[in-house]
């Protein structure tokens, strides 16, 4: 019998719950939350009890109790920048998350819920490779404005796991021996330059940098944003919505649903196709930039995330970037299994947790 691991991963409008026995999935469920569910909360922190109840109900519906579990792991949120690895959730981490000093995202709620479950049932509460994983080289921190340094914010969990998988399965080598460019193509798009096991540069996929994506604007001309902010037409919240949640495909096509857009393209919607081609164009420019960061010494370009299932997108990317390095396609977000694998390594003492902060 292996360890029973509860995995939780909170998004803006969903709560993903799973139980694994070591790295074998016993069940997984994605609970969607409607605008009506969430509009009664004035901020995300008021959602903690609501989300915790949904998790408990999911476990009960699938025949599990919290007493059966050996560990709970979550994705983590916007605390202070950390090295890649596994961390035991502690009060200082929770205080940093609640301060919103390093940003705010619903993923951070998972740390509070995991901590409550862990304390109540006497099991470890941990996280791994949170979105603010920071392995930047020093030159990558310069933005052009001293008061606004670039920060690392990306899909670290899936990028790291996918890079390790490609290194082992396609090269028979360790991730720390290779240079890769890894592209997470999902609701947000992050493209990282992985040098010998460290992501030394990556676009900030949350707050407006890099390619536009299904729901995020990516890099926008700063002067245009300034003019919009001072036009008197938009509130701060409305402008933030344009950057994340209302940008990208939502802005151009009115939806962030990749399958819906794919159907429109297949039905002959020429404008939808042009928007997808433009998004891919920007993705490829970012891949090229990462190739320069790695000085042209690139062993692989890797595509992952939900949009990597769409052959039109992967084909267009391949056409533009395969001159850089061999292209590997590993579709899917893979966050739940990645968290379970990290928890199993922790429980079997194959990897020591790092200290926060």
* End-to-end Cα distance: 34 Å
How many distinct helices?
A: 12
Major sheet summary line: 6 strands, mixed
Tell me, briefly, the overall form. Answer: globular
What level of helicity do the residues show? 25-40%
CATH superfamily of the largest domain: ATPase, nucleotide binding domain
Second CATH tier, the architecture of the largest domain:
2-Layer Sandwich
Structure explained in plain terms:
It is a single chain. The chain is built from twelve helices and eleven strands. It has a six-stranded mixed β-sheet with strand order 3-2-1-4-6-5, sandwiched between helices. Helix content is 38%, strand content 18%. It is an alpha/beta fold. The model has no long low-confidence stretch (mean pLDDT 95). The chain folds into two domains: 144 residues, Nucleotidyltransferase, domain 5; 177 residues, Nucleotidyltransferase, domain 5 (2-Layer Sandwich).
Key features of this structure:
357 residues; alpha/beta; Nucleotidyltransferase, domain 5; 2 domains; 6-stranded mixed beta sheet; 5-stranded mixed beta sheet; 12 helices; 11 strands
Task: Describe the structure concisely for a colleague.
The protein is of the alpha/beta class. Helix content is 38%, strand content 18%.
Question: What are the SSEs and their pairings?
Answer:
Layout: E1 4-10, E2 14-21, E3 24-32, H1 35-38, H2 48-61, E4 71-74, E5 86-88, H3 91-99, H4 109-121, E6 125-128, H5 156-171, E7 179-185, E8 189-195, E9 198-202, H6 222-229, H7 236-243, H8 249-253, H9 258-266, H10 270-293, E10 300-305, H11 311-321, E11 327-331, H12 335-347
Parallel strand pairs: 1-4, 4-6, 7-10, 10-11
Antiparallel strand pairs: 1-2, 2-3, 5-6, 7-8, 8-9
Helix pairs in contact: 2-4, 9-10, 10-11
């Amino acid at each position: 019998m292996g360890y029973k691991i509860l995995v939780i991963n909170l998004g803006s409008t969903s709560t993903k719950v799973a139980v694994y026995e070591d790295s074998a999935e016993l069940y997984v469920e994605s609970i969607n939350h409607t605008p009506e569910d969430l509009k009664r909360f004035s901020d995300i922190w008021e959602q903690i009890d609501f989300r915790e109840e949904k998790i408990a109900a999911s476990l009960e519906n699938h025949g599990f109790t919290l007493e059966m579990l050996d560990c709970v792991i979550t994705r983590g949120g916007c605390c202070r920048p950390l090295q890649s690895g596994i961390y035991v959730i502690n009060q200082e981490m929770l205080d940093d998350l609640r301060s919103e000093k390093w940003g705010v995202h619903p993923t951070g709620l998972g740390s509070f819920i995991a901590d409550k479950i862990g304390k109540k049932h006497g099991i470890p509460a941990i996280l791994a490779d949170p979105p603010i994983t920071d392995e930047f080289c020093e030159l990558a921190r310069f933005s052009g404005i001293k008061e606004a340094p670039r920060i690392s914010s990306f899909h670290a969990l899936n990028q790291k796991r996918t890079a390790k998988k490609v290194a082992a399965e396609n090269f028979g080598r360790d991730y720390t021996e290779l240079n890769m460019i890894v592209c997470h193509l999902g609701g947000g798009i992050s493209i990282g330059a992985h040098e010998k096991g460290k992501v030394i540069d990556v676009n900030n996929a949350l707050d407006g940098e890099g390619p536009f994506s299904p729901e995020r604007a990516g890099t926008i001309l700063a002067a245009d944003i300034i003019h919009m902010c001072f036009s008197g037409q938009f509130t701060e919240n409305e402008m933030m919505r344009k950057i994340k949640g209302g940008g990208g495909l939502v802005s151009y096509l009115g939806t962030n649903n990749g399958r819906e857009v794919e159907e429109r393209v297949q039905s002959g919607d020429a404008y939808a196709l042009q928007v997808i081609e433009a998004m891919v164009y920007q993705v490829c420019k970012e891949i090229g930039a990462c190739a320069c960061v790695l000085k042209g010494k690139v062993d692989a370009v890797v595509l992952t995330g939900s949009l990597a299932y769409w052959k039109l997108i992967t084909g267009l990317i391949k056409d533009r970037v395969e001159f850089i390095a061999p292209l590997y396609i590993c579709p899917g977000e893979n966050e739940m299994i990645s968290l379970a694998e990290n928890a199993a390594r922790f429980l079997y003492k194959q990897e020591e947790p790092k200290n926060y902060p």
